[in-house]
Amino acid sequence: MSEKTMFGEFFLIEQDDGSSKRAGRLTFGETSGRDETWLRNTLFDHPELLPVRDIDSSFGPLIPLCKELQTKAGPLDLAFIDPNGNLTLVECKLWRNPEARRKVVAQVLHYAQAISRWSYSDLQPAATQARKGEGNVPFELVRKEHPSLSI
To answer: Of the candidates 78, 92, 91, 84, which has an alpha carbon nearest to the alpha carbon of residue 60?
Structure first.
């Protein structure tokens, strides 16, 4: 299966005017001024860019939960939640080399291991703190997208 067939078309969202253009591959080392913070913010603002349905059709639609979720393994770049309460964890890294890919997989597994021990009562305050808010942030975010949900 080709990459195009497996993952579809990718578009780069330009943050200044909201326009989009087809993403192209950059030469090694070129970032065009974009860094991991830019990548994290873009994915948080546009979760539809993540091909989760292509990976596992039971996940999604993704609702941005928080950035920099504090765990015992360190801060996780992004956490998303779906209407069923499933979490999707994202660690943002710019393409470097195969060794970097192995390290990021280990890093995400470390975050997942830490979060897998959490109950909802652990997730709720951590997500609320990461969003610098108050209340039951995970539930409120999902209910905002799906008003028919109730406690």
So the answer is: 84
Cβ atoms within 10 Å of 43's Cβ, excluding its own = 21
> Can you tell me which residue has the tokens 């039971």?
58
CA dihedral of residues 46, 2, 82, 70 (deg, nearest 10): -70
Shortest CA distance to 67 belongs to which of 14, 8, 126, 150? 126
Beta strands per DSSP E along 4-143: 11-13, 20-22, 63-71, 74-81, 87-90
Name the residue ranges covered by the structural domains of the chain. 3-145
Reported as a single tens digit per residue, the pLDDT across 24-52 is 666 666 667 778 888 899 899 989 888 88
Q: What is the pLDDT of residues 51-95, one digit of tens each?
A: 888 888 888 899 999 999 999 999 999 999 998 889 999 988 876
Measuring CA to CA, how many Å separate 39 from each of 56, 69, 98, 120, 139? 22, 16, 19, 28, 26
**Taking CA 83 as the corner, what is the angle to CA 108 and CA 124, rounded to the nearest 5 degrees?**
60
pTM: 0.78
Report d(CA 104, CA 111) in Å as an integer.
11
